Amino acid sequence: MASLHTNFLGIHSPNPYWLASAPPTDKAYNVLRAFEAGWGGVVWKTLGSQVKNVSSRYSSVDYGGQRVMGFNNIELISDRPLDINLREIREVVREFPDRAMIVSLMADNDRQSWHELIKKVEDTGAHGLELNFGCPHGMNERGMGSAVGQDPEIARMVVEWVMEVATIPVITKLTPNVHSVVPAGKACVEAGTNALSLINTIQSVTGVDLDTFVPNPNVGGQSAFGGYCGPAVKPIALKFLTTIAQNDVTRQVPVSGIGGISTWKDAAEFMLLGATSVQVCTAAMKHGFRIIEDLCEGLSNWMDEKGFATTANFIGRSVPTLTKWEELDINYHIVANIDQSKCIHCGLCYIACEDTSHQSIRLDYGNPYNTYTIKEEECVGCNLCKLMCPVTDCITMVEQRKAPEYVNWKDYQRLGMPLNDH
Amino acid sequence: MITNNRLSAEQYTLNFADIHPPFESHDSALVEASRCLFCYDAPCMKSCPTSINIPKFIKQISTENIKGSAKTILSSNIFGAGCGKVCPVEKLCEGACVYNFLEEPPIPIAKLQRYSTEKAIEDKWKLFERKQSNGKKVAIVGAGPAGLSCAHSLSREGVDVTIYEKENKGGGLMTFGIAAYKVTPEFCEDEVEYILSIGGIEVKYNQELGKDVTLEELTQQYDAVYLGIGVGLTRNLGIKGEELEGVVDAIDFIYNLRDKGYSYVPVGDKVAVIGLGMTAIDAATQAKRLGASEVTIVYRRTHAEMPCTQHEMDIALLDGCKIKWLSAPKKIHGHKGKVTSLECSVMELGEPDASGRRSPVETKETFTLDVDMVIKATGQTPFTKLVEENELENKSGKLVITQDGRTNVAKVFAGGDAVNGGKEVVDAVQAGKDGAKGILEFLGVVDVAVEPAYNKSVVSDAT
């Protein structure tokens, strides 16, 4: 059976699943429950500047009758006294020495505050530090969190302060509230961070209450931009993760992937795009810590099926296949095929193609069931019908190359090949 | 022994409680609404005789636009709430739901339909504006589903409608002819009141055509007349003993149950029900629920030919009713003028008849059921005498109409059971719409907003 054991800069954990720095890792009670449930590690909720929290703090985006497709929060870093947090971290490390204990930090913006905080945290026996350069609500108004991560030079300076004293691995957590995470990531790596993690939450408004007219979450008739996370942000996280894996500087350090990971499949995808460990929060907040069982079992079964003995066998494997558009093979062509024996006659493929794509599906009226067939000569192979079809494998895309040779956009221009063939 | 008042008030309430309870909350409706795939050119919609835009109204439930949802339903079927309770959806919309292909339960369309429309009736949502009166006057005979549907469609267009109804309540067979555990008489009254709330429709109750008012008078006083007179009592069995005390008509039996209350209606200990249509099921199950100890349904064909749906038959079977297949009543025996038993012939299937079903042929074999009550539910007969007196063209009493709903008599239109011989409520509602469309065209009223019948206008043209 495949091993999920993870070695992240010498920080060992029985599986790659860490709970992200957030309310679930706020205190010993939660973390002990998480470890008992089987989580590989935690990133303890951010310690640092003294804060006060408000009520309410969370809001969500529901979709298709399901709760929490996306989630946001305006909770600040830990509002518990530092001493209590440090004592509890020490206790947990002692009780579960085989689990990864990373502590998230956000000190006031001066060298001395960072130095003092790091020394105190290292004294607990924690295995690593994560620098919170990403929190996009509240803390950023005070020049911390995402305000640091958004400015590569400030990020570089803080990492340098940290590296002056840190003796355990330092992971720097990046904010996605930028057009690219690479400049800040690069600055942090150059300043000596041992690893990166991403993404933190995305500044957001989840919605407006149509009765009170106040956006969510409502704090006494007002609201503030919150940090967005949950399944909805996964594609954005994967994109940012890939850019880190593709850059010559940032790819030198291991990455802990974060952003909407809810299932073992999500985790596998993050790892295929370069993450060594993954961090989870929203899914645990929705279902509790028990989800770790399937996260591990599913990943392990998939690894067995694929013949991967360890996670190192596939981390980053998909990175080279994500290329520039201009490298794509224009002669590669697929057309849709509808398996009539599987078709349930819902017409969703037809209306999608007819109204919004290339009118490539023929409709033969029936009562009550219509018949839908592909007009192969019209089909551009866009996938739309297949994506809308509610039946798995009813619509498949069949390869019909335009020509045998690989020709990309650059070749096309160079050779003056014909355009507008559709 | 045939007697009434067999059960306690609590038992009656329990036995006649709503067989398909509604959704308890928006959350529960949302679970099912969210499953709907929102099919294009949806099979469910095409399988609804009134062509309700089902994907649209379900989508509107999921977006919490309940008013919009109710209007979508009621625009096509003003009896949408009642039909949500009584339609045999397993052979209509839900039977056509694409989930059936996946061997998954279909979307509970009827239940979702009730969710929106019952709210509309409860909260008296004013979803339709009647156009200003255009001075045209139409008389409608019969305040059943066909008549009221026609009236509503006409009133929306500004026609002044007067309905002549022989009963003291509207709703027709919806109010008087359906099992109480599907739809209560009280609900039917609310629904009729809601339909009439558009205004411009006057109902004259206790006015029977041919008795209190004549067709000639109506054609003289009104610009057009619509006959939604339905059908009458069950046809006679034509066997010996039919006159005995204890032989009742299913229509009468159900009528009394709904009009006079459960405890009023007498029922036997051992009851035979003749026939296996929807009315037979309603009579059999309700006889059982009134306290009969044994109910046997006698049907002359087999399971393959039965007119009721499997779903309906299951209700009867779960109530403990028995079914005797390939059995035809031969003679009702009695003692001192009262039913004591029913003698039946054992049948076998012969050649297909006009309906395409193999017709039952008598064998020499017979059997006898000990019963003290026989309920006849072998299909209703048209009002042949009334129709012929008025020189209306008909086929064995069923009115003959043109495509736009006209009879052979000038200014006189017709639809519903009186024309088709007795189909579902939803068919009558569509017939009312069709009749209204024909009348509006006849009266020269422009801008007709009557929803078209999908199956006619779209599918037949396209195929």
From TrEMBL, chain A:
The UniProt record lists the keyword Transferase: no
Domain 4Fe-4S ferredoxin-type: residue ranges: 334-366, 370-400
Any one GO molecular-function label of the UniProt entry: iron-sulfur cluster binding
Alphabetical UniProt keywords: Iron, Iron-sulfur, Metal-binding, Oxidoreductase
A single GO cellular-component term on record: cytoplasm
EC number: 1.3.1.1
Catalytic reaction annotation: 5,6-dihydrouracil + NAD(+) = uracil + NADH + H(+); 5,6-dihydrothymine + NAD(+) = thymine + NADH + H(+)
Record-linked Pfam families: DHO_dh, Fer4_21
Alphabetical list of InterPro entries matching this protein: 4Fe4S_Fe-S-bd (IPR017896), 4Fe4S_Fe_S_CS (IPR017900), Aldolase_TIM (IPR013785), Dihydroorotate_DH_cat (IPR005720)
Keyword flag Nucleotide-binding: no
Gene3D superfamilies cross-referenced by the UniProt entry: 3.30.70.20, Aldolase class I
Function recorded in the entry: Involved in pyrimidine base degradation. Catalyzes physiologically the reduction of uracil to 5,6-dihydrouracil (DHU) by using NADH as a specific cosubstrate. It also catalyzes the reverse reaction and the reduction of thymine to 5,6-dihydrothymine (DHT).
Subunit-level organization: Heterotetramer of 2 PreA and 2 PreT subunits.
Family note: Belongs to the dihydropyrimidine dehydrogenase family.
Protein name: dihydrouracil dehydrogenase (NAD(+))
